[in-house]
Amino acid sequence: MLRSLHIENIALIDRLDLELSEGFVVLTGETGAGKSIIIDSVNLLLGGRADRDLIKSGAQKAVSEGLFDLDQNAAALLAELGIPAEDGEIVLSRELSAAGRNTCRINGRIVPLSTLRSIGATLVDIHGQHDNQALLDPSRHLDFLDGYAIKELSNLKDAVAHSFAEWKNAVELVKSGAQSEAALARREDMLRFQLEEINAVSPVLGEEEELIEESALLSRAEEIKSSLSQAVALLNGGDEDEQGALSLLQLAAERLGPIAGISKKYSETMERLNEASYVVEDAACELRSFREDTPEDRYRLEEVNSRLDKLYQLKRKYGSTLEEVIKYRKNAEKELLDMEDKRAFLEKGEAEIKRLKKQLYANCKALSEARRAAAKKLESAVLFEMAQLGMEKASFVIKFDELTGIESAHFSENGMDSAEMLLSTNPGEPVRPLQKVASGGELSRIMLAFKSIECGVFDRSCMIFDEIDAGISGRISTVVGQKMRNLSNGRQVICVTHSAQIAAMANSHLLIEKSEKNGRTATTVRALLLEEREIELAERSPENRQSPTQKNCSNPHIVNRCQHKFRRPSEN
Predict the structure, then answer these.
(1) pLDDT over 70 at 559, yes or no
(2) What's the CA gap between 410 and 417, in Å, rounded?
(3) At what angle do helices 440-454 and 322-388 cross, to 10 degrees?
(4) Is 107 in contact with 84 (CB distance < 8 Å)?
(5) HSE (CB half, 13 Å, CA atoms) of 497?
(6) Distance between terminal CA atoms of the chain?
(7) Looking at the domain covering 1-129+460-528, what would its CATH class be?
(8) DSSP characters for 379-405?
(9) Is residue 452 a contact partner of residue 483, using CB atoms and an 8 Å limit?
(10) Nearest CA among 552, 464, 556 for reference residue 131
(11) Which of 103, 249, 256, 294 is the most buried if burial means most Cβ atoms within 10 Å?
């Protein structure tokens, strides 16, 4: 339940600290006094729509804060969110700034707006002034039924939503695949041509460098052999009378032989000359070998250059390096495989769609049957509640469209049902759509019946009604007041009302007043004592509100009449 409410700078309220009691609490006041401001403030801290117009003129921010008893549902959700709760209480708050900032807190911790809404939904059920209009919209009637039977229908609705998503995705995929079949075929032809072109060459990683070197050798073979021959001649000597580097080194070493024993440095130099001659001799041997191995194959040169030309052509089309060309081939092969898989799926797509549609239809049919069974229970529950609200001769029916076959069914994630609530308020008259037969007062009572039924489905410790008595007067107001008093057993019921009969049933009574001070209008709220309450009820009695001239709060006759006309809560 809502223990206390703190409001700052909202509409006409400067600052308000309101303590709320258990049981049935009513708020009364003249039209325009600001009764709806209280409801708007509660709705705000529960995560409702925030409008900067709510901020009091001239103020920089508006604040709404509520202290609630922590019930099991809210406690479980808090535990999931990791928010500590102490002493079985929870504080929700919301702050709006003129600059547009929106700050939400739970037990002092800043949380997203969605979290505030989730927690708020477990604590309070608010019925606004215009919520009755939902009963006049047939497209929302199925929601009332699903909300009533949520425990029985939850798994079935999940199964329908899942199978609908699968079926829809398959339809979209096949549809898009069929539309792109021509493009798919064109892409496949191009990929196959490219792969044939690459595979015809069959490039090997690293071969390009080897071919370039081989081409250079073949194209300059004569030049290479000439250079190698000249080098060999310079090392070994050319003509018979011409000495090469090798013989000169050997001759120099021989000249040092006679004097090698004289000094160590001569002998060491001689050794180096001998070593140098060995190196030159090896080099000469290698050069002769290179010369003999140098190929002179014009046909091989043509083959190498032809191969390099093919590799260059591949690189121009598929990558700047052979590595990129080979990678392109790999990706093209994978894309072709994917195309084959997609084509295989498209070929069997229609069969898959039929299978998924049959599964969807089976799930929808199971949901429809469960809804029809739940509708019978809801009809009985509504008729029972309506009888308690003075509509004991009314008839109430939930009408479904006939179940159709799989081919004509209209599927959605919510199934294939369409339902409408029908009402007859007079015996012998056929049931007809609510919007055609229900008066404003009857709509209010039907909505109150639904709210009474919801109490057994959603265990919220606080219910708030903003003028649920719209269109209700006379004896029925007393019946509605008694019904709301009964609803408050085990929970808190807060009601904004203009009806004295309803207000008379409350456990506590708050008066909302508007006054002018220092040129500014302000709204205040105060709890009424017994004597004050009797005067307020007398003022709100139908007889006293017939004419403004009859309004006399201090008239003992009016007070006395009120005391006898309406039973006080202590007498109920």
Answers:
(1) no
(2) 8
(3) 110
(4) yes
(5) 32
(6) 22
(7) alpha beta
(8) HHHHHHHHHHTT-TT-EEEEEEPPP--
(9) yes
(10) 464
(11) 249
Nearest one of 536, 390, 535 to 474, comparing CA atoms: 390
Contact (Cβ atoms closer than 8 angstroms) between residue 122 and residue 77: yes
- Which of 358, 354, 355, 369 is CA-nearest to residue 405? 358
Q: How does DSSP assign 399-441, residue by residue?
A: EEPPP--TTT---BTTBS--EEEEEE-STTSPPEEHHHH--HH
Classify residue 471 as left (phi > 0), alpha (psi -120 to 50) or beta. Answer: left
Estimate the crossing angle of helix 150-179 against helix 141-148, to 10 degrees.
130
> Which pair of structure tokens corresponds to residue 222?
């004569």
298-318 vs 181-201: helix axis angle to the nearest 10? 150
Q: Both tokens of residue 55?
A: 């901020």
> How do the domains of the chain map onto residue ranges?
1-129+460-528, 155-365, 529-572
In the block, which residue shows the tokens 């995560």?
47
pLDDT digits over 199-249, tens only?
999 999 888 888 888 787 777 777 777 787 788 788 887 665 667 888 888
Cβ(56)–Cβ(13) below 8 Å: yes
d(CA 16, CA 14): 7
CA distance 105 to 44: 12
Cβ proximity of 416 and 410 under 8 Å: yes
